[in-house]
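Sample entry (63 residues):
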Amino acid sequence: MPAIASLEDLVAAQAALVELRQRQPEAYADFVELFRRHRHIGYKNLSRLMMGEATPEKLKGAE
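Predicted structure, serialized as C-alpha cells:
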C-alpha cells in the first residue's frame, strides 16, 4: 500500500533516521527492537506513548 505522505517527507524522515542511527547506533537499535516487540499495538499508539501525548488509559478510552 503506498504511503500517504509525500515522497519529499518520506525522504526527509529517512535521512533523519540515518543521521540518528549514525549518532546513536545502540539507542537506535534499542528503539528498533522496542517497535518490533510492540508492533501489535500500532505505530500511532506507540508514537503517542513515546511522545507523552497519551497514556495507555487514554488510548483505551478509560480516562
